[in-house]
Please model this.
Amino acid sequence: MEDLRRDVTCGELRAGDEGRTVTLNGWVHRTRDHGGVHFLNIRDRYGITQVVVAEDAPAGLQRATETAKLEYCVAVRGAVRRRPDDMVNPEMATGEIEVSAGQIEILSPCATLPFMIEERSEAREETRLKYRYLDLRSFSMQRKMALRSEVTFRIREYLRGRGFHEIETPTMIKSTPEGARDFLIPSRLHRGKFYAMPQSPQLYKQILMVSGFDRYFQIAHCFRDEDARGDRQLEHTQIDIEMSFVSKEDVFELVEGMMAHTFRRALGRELEIPFPRLAYHDAMNRFGSDKPDLRFELELGDASEVAAGSGFRVFEDTISGGGSVKALVVPGGARLSRKQIDELEGVAKTYGAKGLAWTKIGEGGLEGGISKFVGEKEAEIRSLGAATGDLVLFVADRWNTACIALGAVRSRLGRDLDLIDRDRFAFAWIVDFPLFEWDEENGTWEAAHHMFTMPQEQYIDSMEDDPGAVKGDLYDLVCNGYELASGSIRIHNPELQQRIFDIVGFSREEAENRFGFLMEAFRYGAPPHGGIAPGLDRLLMILAGEESIREVIAFPKTTAGISPMDDSPSVVDERQLEELGIRIVETEEEHS
Model:
C-alpha cells in the first residue's frame, strides 16, 4: 500500500496535468466495458476521475479491473492524458482528462449494496439511516456535511471577530423545568440522584454574564426528551449567544450581521438587512402563524363585516360569542375543485377549526359553498381584495384558533399552488410576544417563553394585575416559515424574578430547589444581559433546501427516536442497573 498512497484527489486533475503519473485512492463509482476497454469512475469526497484500462493491459491489471465492483475501495496508479475532444465531459470538473491505469489494487471489497448510493433518494429513510455510512458517501450528503462545516466555521469566525469567547458549559447538569422533558443520567456514586442533559445552556450562560464574560457563545449540543418531527430531533445543535449591557437592538444587529456574513462567505449570497419586524399579534392576524413564511403574499383578512347581518348563523353566533371570522382570498382559486377544497378543510380541522366555509366569485356573482347565505355580501367580500375568478375561504372560531387554522391552509396553498419563491430567504423578527399564557387545563398562568424573560418596562409595576396583557422583552427570528432562533432580554434582579415565579405558581421552595444557584449568583452584582440561540440544524436545513433536519445531521435519530445504525436505545446489562440502584418495571402492555 505504501507505494499506492494517493498523491492527488479524484477532483483536482485538469488538462494542465497531462503527462503526470499519479496515484488515486477512492471508491468505484461506476464501471463500463466498451469492447474490452474498461472504464472505471473513481470517487472520493473531492470529485470523480475517469480511469481507463486498455484492451491490451497485462493480465493482472485486467483481473483487478474485472474484480473491482461498485463501492470497492481501490488504489489506481497511471498517467494523466487528455480526452479526445468528442469525449470531453463538461459536467465533470475533471472531464477534460482521464487516467490510463498502469496498476490497480483492491484495498477493500464491498458487500452487496442495500441501495444504490447514486439513487439514495429512492431508498426508504430507515434503510438509509441503518446504513448511514453508505448514505454519507453520496455527493448529496457530502455536500450537506461540507456546508455544515463551512457554516459553523463562518459563524465562529464572525463571533470571534466581534469579541466573543467560546466557552463550553456542562453536559451533565441539574434537572430544571424548561418546557420539555429532561433526559436523566443516574449517578452511580450518589445512588438515587440524577444529572440531566441540558435542554439548553440557559442558566449557565446567565451565570457566565455574572462572571464578567460579557460576550459568550457556544456551538451547543442540547437534548430534549420530546417527540421528534421534520424540524426537531431529540438532540440538536444551537448557536448559543449571550451578551451583557445590551438591549434587544444590540442582539438584532449582531444576529443580522452574523447571518449576512455567513450567507456571504458560505453561499455567496447577499442578505438584505436589517430584517423586517412584525409584532406577534400582527403576524398571527395577517399570516395565521408566529413563524410566517413571507416568500408569498397571501394574507388573512377580517371578515366581520361579511358576518354581520349575513343571516349565516355560524358566522353570527361566532361574532356574538366574542370570536372572529377570518378570511383568505385565493387569487384565481375559483378553478380549484370541490375535492381540493375538501382537502383544505381537512387541514383547517387538523388545526382546530370546526370547518372551512368558502365561496367563489364568478361572472354572475357568488357561487358555491356558502354563497346562498352571503349572496348579498358580495361587496363586502370584494372589499377583502377578492375579484372575479377568486376563491374566498373563511374560518369562524376563537381569534387564535381561526388565525392558526386559516394560517395552516395558507401554508398548504403556498405549496400546492407553487406560490413560494424558493430562491428567496425571507427573514423577519417577531416581537412583542405575550410574557404569560393561560393554561386552560390547569387554570394557571405559564411563562410563554421561559421564566427568565424580562417583562417590557411599561408592564413591570402592574404585571400581577393583568398577566395576560404583559408583553415580554423577547423575540424570535423566523425564516421561510420556520422559527430559526428565539431569545430575550433576561431578568437579572432576584426580586423581579421571584415575582415571575409567583405569577406562574412556582413556589419559593421549588424555586430555591431548582434555581437557587442562579438566584444566589444574581445577588452578587448581576449585569443586565440578553441573548439568543439560533438553531444550527434548522439553519442548515433551510440553506440546503431540505424539509427535514435529518438531512443535515450526520447521524440523526428517526421520528421514533431510534438510531437504526447502532440500534439505540438498547437494553443494558443488569449489572449496570444494579450498580445504579435502578430496576426496570414492565407494564402489562410491554410484558404482553
Remarks:
- Residues 296-416 form a domain with the Gyrase A; domain 2 fold (CATH 3.30.1360.30).
- The first strand starts at residue 21 and ends at 34.
- The CA atoms of residues 549 and 590 lie 31 Å apart.
- The chain is about 30% helix and 25% strand.
